[in-house]
Design goal:
heterodimer, A: 59% strand, B: 7-stranded mixed beta sheet, 4-stranded antiparallel beta sheet
């Protein structure tokens, strides 16, 4: 099946700093999503971005499908941004459109 | 829109009992739902794909007799952990996708934290 690699695995920032999270995937994809999992376990949809660039407030994401990677940018980070960020993809050969998750990036934003 | 409701959010049960977890799509129809399991500090692992009106498709290594899935309507899928044991303690999350299935995002419930004592 499709492989999803995220980097870095851990990231510690001071409040106000910017960061870039990366997601590499091993095959063509129909669907790519970025999620933020908060300390209570809730998965928050950040972006549905199989290709192109999107922005939502301090967050933006870019997926370069031809080169099989996606980037999540967090600007002016806040302590509430802390948590695990997951990239998940649905390989184009799949028939049920199920998502395969990366191992996540644990982000800690210190005040 | 596209809200997925999961219930209960937390359950504690004794070893040997069964636990049912419900997953509902509140404002859309979902012919397909997905059940994931997450261990502490780990990623989400797909357990099974739940298809409305037919048998679920289980991922390799997932015991179908242990994790019973029923998808009786377009808005409800249930996962029953049968004869639960402490090693079944985990965080279970369901998800569903609205139409068109191929080009729309997956939406997740808030998860169920199961503790088997």
């Amino acid at each position: 099946g499709i492989q999803v690699e995220q980097s870095p695995p851990d990231l510690i920032l001071q409040e106000g700093a910017n960061s870039t999270l990366r997601c590499n995937f091993s095959d063509s994809v129909n669907n790519l999503q970025w999620f933020h999992q908060n300390p209570w376990g809730q998965l928050i949809n950040l972006f549905y971005i199989p290709s192109g660039t999107k922005q939502n407030g301090r967050l933006s994401a870019t997926t370069v499908a031809t080169e099989r990677y996606s980037l999540l940018y967090i600007s002016s980070s806040q302590t509430t941004d802390s948590g695990v960020y997951f990239c998940a993809v649905d390989g184009s050969g799949g028939s049920n459109y199920k998502l395969t998750f990366g191992k996540g990036t644990l982000l800690t934003v210190n005040p | 829109g596209a809200v997925v409701s999961q219930h209960p959010s937390r359950v504690i049960c004794k070893s040997g009992t069964s636990v049912k977890i419900e997953c509902r799509s509140l404002d859309f129809q979902a012919t397909t739902m997905f059940w994931y399991r997450q261990f502490p500090k780990k990623s989400l692992m797909l357990m099974a794909t739940s298809n409305e009106g037919s048998k679920a498709t289980y991922e390799q290594g997932v015991e179908k007799d242990k994790f019973l899935i029923n998808h009786a309507s377009l808005t409800l899928s249930t996962l029953t952990v049968t004869s639960a044991h402490p090693e079944d303690s985990s965080f279970y999350i369901c998800s569903a996708r609205g139409l068109p299935h191929r080009n729309s995002p997956l939406h997740f419930g808030n998860g169920t934290r199961l503790t088997v004592t």
